[in-house]
Amino acid sequence: MSEEKKEVSRRGFMKTAGAGIVGLAVGAGIGYGASQMAGPAAGPAPTVTVTKPGEMPFPFNLPRKGDTPAERAINAAKYVLDKHPEWKGTELVLACVGGYQVGFEAMKKRWESETGTKVTIATTPLPEFFDKLMVEAVTKTGAIDLVNIQPMHVSDLVEAGLLYQLDDVAMWIDILEHGRPYGYVYPLEYFIPRYRGKLYGFVQDGDVATLYYRKDWMSDPKEKEGFEKQYGYPLAPAKTIIEYRDQAAWFYRPNEKRYGFVEYRELTRNANKFYCYFNSKKWPNNYYFDDNMKPQLTTKEGIEAATIYVEMMKYGPPDLPSLLGIAPATYFAEGKAFESINFPSFANLIQDPKAASRNKWETAPVPGWYVDGPEGKKILNRRSVNLASWCLAVSNHSKKRDLACCLAAYMADPWVLLEGMLQPATWHDMSRYCHVGFAAPAQLRDRRGPLLSYFEENASVLTPMVTGLIAATEYNVTLSKNLHAAMVGTMDPVKALETTEKQWEEITNRVGRQKQIEAWKELKKWYPTTII
Amino acid sequence: MDKHIENLLYTAVRYIFALGVAFFSLFPIYWMFTMSIKPPIEWASPDIHWWPWYPTASNYLMLFFHKNTLLEWGVIKPWEISVPETAVKAIMNSLILSISGTALSLFIGTFAAYAMSRYRAGGDYMFLTFRMLPPIAILMPIVMWLSTLRLLDTHIGVILLYGLFPVPFVIWLMRSFFDDLPREIDEAAIMDGCTPATTFIKVILPLVRGGLAVTALFIFILNWSDLIVALLVTYRTAITIPVQIGLYYSDIGHLYGIMSALGIFAVIPTLAFGLAIQKYLVRGLTFGAIKG
User: C-alpha B102: how far from its chain's center?
Assistant: First the structure.
């Protein structure tokens, strides 16, 4: 086998080196040009704009014409399109996670027909969604105009400069419509789209945790008698987590393919559910952190909540540790589960005309704990949790940002939201007073059943997940993973909480304790003090 | 030890080893297939179901038929996990983008490799450029570049990336095939009146078609299985199968059965392509092997 020795000539070397330098120069030129064309540097948009005499800055230049937010938003969009004729017939890209498009596709129709613009709903896999938005925050391409995000994403995306501050738009187009009958159910608008007191999104989905149970099983005289005999108190909607556990244990009959309860307990998201067991353990609230951001998980209350949370695994279906989102609804809809603490969307599925559970279920305020209340009296403390929720935000780097703001405002209209809520398998849920209670539209009542009656009551004791802090997602996922280890038996609950506390401390130290303390104080202001 | 027993033992060890390797290679495919015909209740069952207790085709049907159609047919129930959109667009996109990207990279890379082999064009240095780095490291500037050219989420944008990213690989592979051909063949063709271009097209290319087929398969697999590029430069219009599979990891649940059904479907084109060019594979993989 011959081996040819190759020598590099000076000419060859100069050619190669020269080509390399030219390549680098061209690459740098393209990169620089792209960064210049891609838009302004990251950072929340300023709210103060210098104007010429007689000229008002956006959004105060928009007409305030129309009786509803949708009308005002469409009129504002028409004005914007007149000012920017190059945007006529343009396309706005709304990014959301896969599965959320069902509601948006229905909601966008009126906007498209009245403004002549196109709305493209771009879906991304859930695990990569946040990363993809971060790429947009860094590259500033303007390819995304609006993003539908969770509360726990808001803080990091604001810090990354992706989200446009919407206080002025909300005020000018008047999408909030404070109070009844059309305003947001309190305190949804304070938990979901805000960061350090500023508004960055319009609520799309009010995920207020609610207790669901089978009313026909509960009213069965045989079950009532048997339960009372075994537990020493009557069978009635669970007021406490202990009663919730007892009822799950009573109705757990795997031989009949009946399970006591069903919840989503998946690897990365189950902390949302744990908060339902944890947050009512103290009055007025069992907080995640103290005022110096020291985690409060390994307290006596935290350990009791985690222990019962893990113990409940015995009474659920076998695939409980993998259930996510609406997956638990299958068990309930097919008549295989007695109770659940779950999203409002759960009702949409279990009330389906073909579901075995249709008209056989009821809701109630979430169960809580008897704790020491004011003046040392024992009180029943119930705290619902804002389980996920989503809000529509506008990208700071959108090349049609003014128009995108109008679309976000349109999508926040109570009746446009209703269009989304009425779709089968939708994720859109109630968020306005006109969606719930006596005022609830009949079509919604048919799909959500009795849920609408208790929505406000549960919302009045609503607590947030870990949100409004930098790295909020990381805090929640860390806890979820450790609790999951406890649920599948590879770690005991106390160890899971201890490990989480250590990891939470590391996150806090990494992102800056003082900054986190300020954000935590802002969030704590909105915790409830109500007793129901 | 008796020679016969020694041979038997040797054979047994060889078979056990081969079976072990086969098990590790094929088990994921087997598991993916069984998952693709399991109903949701069996996707994450704590008991191992080696074969589905209730086999179903609904996961496959969800790839091709809209949810409302399946509801009408009674294949799924309204409260059961389902997907709002079919995977038809993603499948078509994957086919178009992977085939076009492979063709483009072969076109550019083969010419370049021939020039490098015969005329030392571009010097003697081989740069694998993009492939020397993890793709994520260069994707930020690429996203900006495509955005500037208004090619984000377009077929042309993705074809450019799938066509240009693998060019260094094509050059690297094809150059070794050209290097193995004696230069006398080129000289004989020129003596017979061929130009350099016709020499390349009519004489040299047919001689390396095995290598071309192997390189095409290799590049096609790279493009077909790409996730990270497609994830970051597509939004809706040009999404591909790997991105679509990711969409089934959703807030409504981890749709393992539907993911697996699409995964199984995704194996088919590569398998078909591989079988179609099988006669070139062995020859292609040895002839033109990179010289040490």
Answer: 10
Give the rounded distance of the alpha carbon of B140 from its chain centre. Answer: 23
Residue A372 is assigned to a structural domain of this protein: yes
Q: What angle do CA A491, A494, A498 make, to 5 degrees?
A: 95
Rounded Cα distance between B75 and B55, Å, is: 13
Contact A265, A487 (CB under 8 A): yes
Across chain B, mean pLDDT equals: 86
* Nearest residue of B to residue A145, measured between CA atoms: B235
Rg of chain B taking only CA atoms, in angstroms? 24
**pTM of the predicted model, to two decimals?**
0.79
Residue whose tokens read 């280890």: A485
Query: Number of structural domains, chain A?
Result: 2
- Is residue A162 within 8 A of residue A133, CB to CB? The reply is yes
Could you tell me the residue range of the domain that residue A519 belongs to?
Answer: 210-385+464-524
Q: What value does the mean pLDDT take over residues A280-302? A: 97
Among the partner-chain residues B139, B144, B231, the one whose CB lies closest to the CB of A128 is: B231
Interface test with A, best of B71, B140, B251 (most A CBs within 10 A): B251
Contact in structure between A428 and A204 (CB atoms under 8 Å)? yes
Alpha helices, DSSP H only, in A284-373?
Answer: 300-311, 329-333, 345-350
* Residue A423 structure tokens: 């779709």
Torsion on CA atoms A229, A234, A235, A238, rounded to nearest 10: -130
Q: What is the mean pLDDT of residues A463-489?
A: 94
Residues of A in contact with B253 (CB under 8 A): 266, 323-327
* Binary contact (B80, A325; C-beta < 8 A): no
Contact A38 B231 (CB under 8 A): no
Query: Which tokens in the block code for residue A289?
Result: 């952190």
DSSP codes, A433-499: GGGSGGG--HHHHHHHTTHHHHHHHHHTTEE--S-SSTTHHHHHHHHHHHHHHHHTTSS-HHHHHHH
Co-location of A165 and A293 in the same domain: no
Residue A263 has pLDDT above 90, yes or no: yes
Give me the residues paired with residue A124 across strands.
A97
Cα–Cα dist A247/A280, whole Å: 19
DSSP SS3 for A208: strand
Please report whether residue A54 resides in a domain.
no
Alpha-helical (H) ranges within B165-255 are: 167-180, 183-191, 196-198, 205-207, 209-224, 228-233, 241-247
